[in-house]
Amino acid sequence: MGDFFQRVVDLEVTGEEAGPLAGRMVDWMVAEGIITREMTKDAMYSLFADLGHEPGPDWARAVADASDPTWLPGPVAVVVGRHHHVGGQGQDVADAATCPRCGTRTVVIDYPQSFEPDEEVWQPFRAGIETWRATGRGDVTCPACAVPVPVTEWEFGPEFDLGALAFDFWGWPPLSVRFLAEFRARLGHRTEEQSGKF
């Protein structure tokens, strides 16, 4: 079975700004009745958070379809800190990375020939991510154009994102287009959405 999640990752917020912005987002969702300030460990599977906010009395305002009376959403985790976020399950590496300077796509997992990452190809990205996580800045030199590029500027494709702030909605019906648009506007940064199963 497993548990499904929807995630919104802020791609631009700095590590220093993430905590205050998370607080403002929580205040807004509490005021709207979407979540409460009550925290729970139940049905919480986020890698970088142990507790999540329980859904509020008006949680249905955030979803596209709340017509199933038996559907009770799970907690919402607020993940503060520089992390890599992956959708789905089982894989912890990006399939590929595209240089924002020259547009060259570096293949990390050569589907369908292989379902495992080429560790030699992925190693510079892993090192850049670890440096960014520790310091807020990490570069990866493009193998094609030889330009050092901040790891946060590389395009990793779907279901792999770097960010200092993310929100995991566990077991919720699909979030509505309207809610996601307001959510992004209130964050004020570029975002990515992920969904998957734990």
Fold topology:
Elements: E1 4-10, H1 15-31, E2 35-40, E3 52-55, E4 76-86, E5 96-98, E6 105-107, H2 119-135, E7 139-141, E8 148-150, E9 160-170, H3 177-187, E10 191-197
What does this structure look like?
The protein is of the alpha+beta class. About 30% of the residues are buried. The chain has helices spanning about 15-30, 120-135, 175-185, and strands at about 5-10, 35-40, 50-55, 75-85, 95-100, 105, 140, 150, 160-170, 190-195. The mean pLDDT is about 95. A four-stranded antiparallel sheet has the order 4-9-1-10. A hairpin with a 6-residue loop joins β7 and β8 (about 150).
End-to-end separation: 9 Å
The SSE order reads EHEEEEEHEEEHE
Helix content: 10-25%
Mean pLDDT: 94
What gross morphology would you assign? Answer: globular
Work out the strand percent: 25-35%
Can you summarize the main beta sheet? Answer: 4 strands, antiparallel
Q: In terms of structural class, how would the helical and strand content be classed?
A: alpha+beta
Strand arrangement within the widest β-sheet reads 4-9-1-10
Instruction: Note poorly predicted spans.
Output: none
Q: What's the total helix number?
A: 3
Radius of gyration using CA atoms only:
18 Å
The total of beta strands comes to 10
In short:
With 198 residues, the chain is an alpha+beta fold. It contains three helices and ten strands, in the order βαβββββαβββαβ.
